[in-house]
Amino acid sequence: MSHIDTIIVGGGQAGLATSYYLTRQGRDHIVLEQAAQAGNAWRNDRWDSFTLVTPNWATRLPGAEYQGSHPHGFMPRDQLVTYFEDYVERFDLPVHYGERVTSVEPKPGSRGYLVRMNGDVLEADNVVMATGLFQRPKQPSFSADLSPDILQLHSGQYRNPGMLPPGAVLVVGSAQSGCQIAEELYQSGRRVYLCVGSAGRAPRRYRGKDLYEWVHLSGFLNRTPDKLPSPRARFAGNPHLSGRDGGHSLNLHQFARDGVVLLGRVQGGQDGALRLAPDLKQNLAKADEFEAQILKLVDRYVEQSGLDAPQETLPQLRDGYAADEITQLNLKSAGITSIIWAMGYAFDFSLVKLPAFDGAGFPVQQRGVTDYPGLYFVGLPWLHGQKSGLLIGVGEQVKHVVSHISDNA
Q1: Residue 304 pLDDT > 70
Q2: pLDDT at 196 over 90
Q3: Rounded to 5 degrees, what are φ and ψ at 3?
Q4: Which of 289, 310, 344 is the last residue of a domain?
Q5: Burial environment of residue 316 by CB neighbours within 10 A (0 to 12, 13 to 18, 19 or more)
Q6: For 215-224, which contacts have Cβ atoms below 8 Å and span 24 or more sequence positions?
Q7: What is the rounded distance in angstroms from the CA atom of residue 371 to the CA atom of residue 352?
Q8: Residue 333 and residue 223 share a domain
Q9: Both 302 and 361 in a single domain?
């Protein structure tokens, strides 16, 4: 049985950043990645026109912080994939592709772990879980009861409007992916129905800066879980906005003005019909309130910091409130031939055979360090602050974990 000091499970941004720091220290380690290539989530689970919603300057994997000529632009999918490929090659990171880990369990009778994969077993003093939050696409069980004539895709399978059969499209979910996909579809000439959830809205720019720069400067991204209204808020959908075409705001009221049919949440369905909750107005109000609170945060920061940022009043659209509350949707009558389930993903850490999780299945840890010696988690939001799962903050959280590994060697 091969022994390795540290095994990193997952070769996404967090796993690669961990490997970067361990490589700099000359520590024995490997990265086990089940995909065949670097940047798998960005390469294979994003649509063709996808761009980051975070500005290029916020792309900060350690040792490869963005140095290009467009810091305020938004990186498209293919460029981001190349960024990850180059990262592995540039720092000669020991990534092993096509290696699917099936379990991580404590080593009987001594410190350390057994990592099982592809029929083999490796022994490690430390295991760093870097598998992220996106293990299982969310799709309701009742989707299996819908007509087989309806093409059903998760947002991770959608690529472009041309891959869908002629007809109207129902997009279920109004966080970042759902809204961006819905916008692309209706701008391509499709009739679009959009089931609206409780995700917030944020303007792309306000008072002379990109909104992301404001939340970074103000410390909003440094919030810790104790600042949230409830533990469940850790898993809320990201506010809708876009980085496409240089970056722009997304607004459900504008969608309604442009002809998108807004609906409440899906509650169930069978054959050719869906049941919908009468909560559209409530969810629109949540999006409006989220934006109002974000603007207040920026205004307060500008005032307290004494910055020269002229006052700005954003358009107050209300078109969505005029929409009828539809509680039954006949797919055939509406001409819907495709459904895109943009409901996000569920996380699943069941391969870790230890009681290291809370009631929601999230790791119990302090800045990624668990109570089990040598077991760590990286790359998730709210391991310390909100940005610990983002390109702007993953390196900071990973550096803390690697320091802990070194200090306890």
Answers
A1: yes
A2: yes
A3: -110, 130
A4: 344
A5: exposed
A6: 215/294, 215/297, 216/58, 216/392, 217/301, 218/297, 218/298, 218/301, 220/297, 220/386, 221/385, 221/386, 221/387, 221/390, 221/392, 221/393, 222/385, 222/386, 222/387, 223/385, 223/386, 224/382, 224/384, 224/385
A7: 14
A8: yes
A9: no
Can you spell out the DSSP letters for 33-92?
Answer: ESSSSSSHHHHHSS-TT-B-SS-GGG---TT----SS-TTS--BHHHHHHHHHHHHHHTT
Phi first, then psi, for residue 143 (nearest 5°) are: -60, -25
Is the same domain home to 64 and 38? yes
**Residue 45: how many other CB atoms lie within 10 Å:** 18
Looking up residue 41, the CATH number of its domain turns out to be 3.50.50.60
- Name the amino acid, one letter, at 340: I
Question: For 163-175, how does the pLDDT look when each residue is reduced to its tens digit (9 = 90+)?
Answer: 999 999 999 999 9
pLDDT at 346: 86
Please give the average per-residue pLDDT across 203-213, as a whole number.
97
Domains held by the chain: number: 2
How far is residue 241 from each of residues 212, 284, 288, 326, measured CA to CA in Å? 11, 15, 13, 26
* Dist. CA 300–CA 347, nearest whole Å: 36
Between the CA of residue 243 and those of 51, 74, 264, 314, what are the distances in Å?
6, 5, 26, 19
- d(CA 390, CA 373) in angstroms, rounded, equals 26
Q: For the chain, what percent of residues have pLDDT higher than 70?
A: 100
Residue 151 has what pLDDT?
97
* pLDDT mean over 61-65: 97
Distance in angstroms (rounded) separating the CA atoms of residues 76 and 48: 9
Q: What is the pLDDT of residue 118?
A: 82
Instruction: Render 327-365 in DSSP notation, one character per residue.
Output: -EEETTTTTEEEEEE---EE---TTB-S--B-TTSPBP-
Q: What is the pLDDT of residue 153?
A: 97
Residue 247 lies in domain: 138-344
Question: Token pair for residue 55?
Answer: 């500005």
Among residues 329, 344, 359, which one ends one of the domains? Answer: 344
Say if residue 103 is in the same domain as residue 155.
no
Euclidean distance between CA atoms 83 and 87, whole angstroms: 6
Instruction: Annotate 277-302 with DSSP letters as a single string.
Output: -S-HHHHHHHHHHHHHHHHHHHHHHH
